[in-house]
Structures are given as structure tokens and as C-alpha cells.
Amino acid sequence: LDGQPHYDIQKKIDHEIRMRDGACKLLAACSQRDQALEAAKSLQTCSTRIMAYMSELQRMKEAQVMQKVTRRSSDAGPMDDRLPCKGKVAISDLRIPLMWKDTEYFKNKGELHRCAVFCLLQLGGEIFDTDMVIVDRTLTDICFDNTIVFNNASPVFELRVELYSCCSEDDYSAGSTPRKLASKLSSSLGRSAGKKLRAAMEPGSCSPISNGGATPLLLPVPSVPGPKYHLLAHTTLSLSHVQDSFRTHDLTISGNEECSYWLPLYGSMCCRLAAQPHCMTQQMMSGCLKVKQLGGDTQSWTKVYAVLKGTSLFCYHRQEDVEANVEPAFTIGINKETRIRASEKDPQSKVQNICISNQYGGEEVTHTLTTDSREDTHRWMEAFWQHFYDMSQWKQCCDDLMKIELPSPRKPAPATPKQGSLYHEMAPLATPSCEGLLLQDNAVSAEIRALLSSYYNDR
Predict the structure, then answer these.
(1) Strand order in 330-333's β-sheet?
(2) What is the CATH number of the domain that holds 364?
(3) pLDDT in tens, 53-67
(4) Residue 16, class by beta-carbon neighbours within 10 Å (0-12 exposed, 13-18 middle, 19+ buried)?
(5) Residue 417 and residue 173: Cα distance in Å, rounded?
(6) Cα distances (angstroms) measured from residue 377 to each of 70, 75, 319, 352
(7) Number of other CB atoms surrounding residue 130 within 10 Å
(8) What is the rounded distance in angstroms from the CA atom of residue 204 to the CA atom of residue 89?
(9) Pairing relation of β-strands 301-309 and 312-316?
(10) How many other CB atoms sit within 10 Å of the CB of residue 168?
(11) Rounded CA separation 40/30 (Å)
């Protein structure tokens, strides 16, 4: 498979493999619980991204093969090449309610069960992770404050939300035990055998290996000592779930109460899912038009610079007014109820008029437009048909422009309380940054610190 898209995806795969290798090494060397939980989270995220990118690469190869077959087919009929525009999809205010037993929540009895959780969100080839949250019985909801925006969604998108959980009560201070054991065994077995043993037990063995100059073979993630996240619940959201308000969606729960990472979920998830199709935010067509004045005679025309965007055709006196953000002279509504047709202006010129009809208060109002040539008329008519097609595919997202907040900068990982419940931890704890956590661990080499710092900066 040739071309820039293949090269870009391969670069992403290579990058995530390096990040996964660094996360494996960091996880094996961690001596603090917070570091181990964050490193395990990075490992899970990298592995998910690698699988998604490889699936995308496979789809591209299959599409290329199908395209070649279609071209060679002699009986292939005409194909409709009209495609809907892309758009932004944003998910925010993610809340997952919990259902603790009365004795646990109200009476604060029983063993304090604490888990570290985070969400992975995937839409196509884009995968994002939320911040990690520590959950115990004093919380009624798992809250993720991240606003996550997918920039290249189609109207048939599927947004998969996965909730991962890990019991945070285990002791992760012995992360370097296998390495110490390997050193002791190597001294007993001799230099040659010991070197092979250390290489086999090296936690960075998840790196790709050579495949005779071809694409590196992707080895499975090795069993690294330390915490492991497990899929606790998931759901898939689509265009039908988009609404400019807070809504509840069903969750599919995995696991059972016997699992150490188990949390008592209600089986639902609340969030705000919004979408902004490009046809609502970008100029889909622009150029000079002449608009017949309503109620005027047949020669009463006004020359304007028109911009097709969202649910309106904006008409300006000059093109410079658009760049200067000057209010348009007037607007013509363009929505799902609008009717547009082309009609002959006169037999001599052969230039067509464009008639745009809308209903206002039960009365039909028609604006008549004309261009300087039949070619310009054709381009405008094609732009209108494409615009209507985009609106028909994005449906409710084209009724009004939904608001999407800009993604907030990632917060440093919160420190895990040493004892007691989160409810009783009134004094705020010092919250070191992810990079600070890396620098605190002297067991991690400078190479790993640089690699993992790059990973967090990229996020």
C-alpha cells in the first residue's frame, strides 16, 4: 500500500510501539503506587491505539484492493460519488453513577474498597483517554471532567466508550523483583547463560523485532509485574445519541462482584454528546451573485458577495466585508424545508436563475438569484445539492449549531490517599505532575524518562 495515508498510520504505529515499550519499562521499575497506576494506564492506552491503527491500516489495504477490482470490472455501473461532509464530535461531562450497599455508603462499614478507573474513547482511528480517577464508597458518581473532541467524524460514526478499572490496594513496590532475580541467577549460571536470561526477562521485550526489512512484527504485551486494568463497562454512541443537552445512555457491564476491580455500577452513563458538521461551521461555497429585490421590477437586481454556510446564505455588499467580519446586508434561509430550483432567465442569454423558496409565517417567500454564466449557475446548484445532502445525513445536528467547548488542558494525576476514605481527606494533597513522578524514581533510566515525558507531552 502506497501513499501518504499509509505512511502516516505506520508512523503512528511505530510511535505507539515505542511508547508502549517505555511504559513496560517504567511499570517494571515503579516503586510507588501512583506511578504504577499511571504507567499501567499508559500501557493499556498504547496497546489499544496500536490495535486500532493496525485495523485502520488493514481497512485501507482492503479498500485499495476493492478499488482495483471495481476499475477492472467491465460491467460495473455508474457509482454515486457524493459523500457527506465530515465534522467534529465532542463528548463532555461524563458521569457514571455508582450503586453502593447501604451499609457501605451510609454506615461506612466494611472493608474500604478503592479502585483506579479511566475511560478510553475511540472514534475511527482516533483514541483518547481521560484522567485517572480514584473511586471508593464515598463517591456516588465517577466524574470525568475532560472534554474530548474528535475532528474527523462522519455522520455514520460509532463512538465506543470503555471504562477500565484496577484495584489500587495491592502492593506495587516490588516492581523490580524479576530484574533482581535475573541478576542473582545470572551470577550463578555464568556470563553467557546469564546474559540470555536477563534479555529474556527484560521488561522492554514488547518492542517490535525485525522481519527481514518488512513491517516490524508486533509482539504481544508481556506480563509485566504491577497493576493491570480490566474492562469494566462499555457502550457505543452514534448520531442518534447526539443532542445539545445532558443525556443518559445504557452501559454493558463486564466482570462480576468476585473481581478485585469490580465497582457497583448502575448500568448507565450520563454525558453531553454534541456534533458540528463542517457544513455548519465552514464556507461551503462563495462567490458573486445578483439578487432580485423582492417586490421590485424585472430589472431591479442587487449585486452581492454570497457565502453558503450553516442554515443561511449570507449576502454581503463586498467580499472584503466577509474578512472584516462585517454584518451581512441580508440573509436567505437555507434549511431542510427550503426548496431550490433552476429556471431559464430568457431564451436569448440561456443563463438560468436560481429560485430559493422558504415558508415564513405560512407564506411562501421566493428569492431569485442569477450568475454571470451557466457554469457559475451549475457550480452554485451543485453546492446547494451537496449542502442539502450533508444536512440530510447529519440530521438534527443541522437544526442549530451546537456548542463545543475547547478541550481543557490535562490535569496532573492526583495522588492516591494513603489511608481513610476520600470523603475524610479534607486537606488537599500535593499533586505532582506525571513528569515529576517520572523524575522522582531513580530506578528509571534517563532514556525511559525522556521517552515517557514525550508521551505525556503528546497527550
Answers:
(1) 330-333, 312-316, 301-309, 285-292, 363-370, 352-360, 339-344
(2) 2.30.29.30
(3) 898 888 888 877 877
(4) buried
(5) 16
(6) 33, 34, 19, 7
(7) 23
(8) 36
(9) antiparallel
(10) 24
(11) 10
**Residue 350, domain extent:** 282-398
The C-alpha atoms of residue 391 and residue 143 are separated, in whole angstroms, by 34
Instruction: Identify the band that residue 450 occupies on the pLDDT scale cut at 50, 70 and 90.
Output: low
- C-beta of residue 398 within 8 angstroms of C-beta of residue 338: no
pLDDT at 443 over 80: no
pTM tops 0.85: no
Q: How far is CA 441 from CA 21, 201, 359, in A?
A: 18, 21, 69
CB atoms within 10 A of CB 63: 11
454 falls within a domain: no
> What are the grid coordinates assigned to 334, written together?
437555507
- Surface-to-core class of residue 287, CB atoms within 10 Å of its CB (0-12 exposed, 13-18 middle, 19+ buried): middle
Q: How far apart are CA 128 and CA 233, in angstroms?
A: 16
Domain count, the chain: 1
What is the distance between the alpha carbons of residues 440 and 138, in angstroms, rounded to a whole number?
Answer: 30
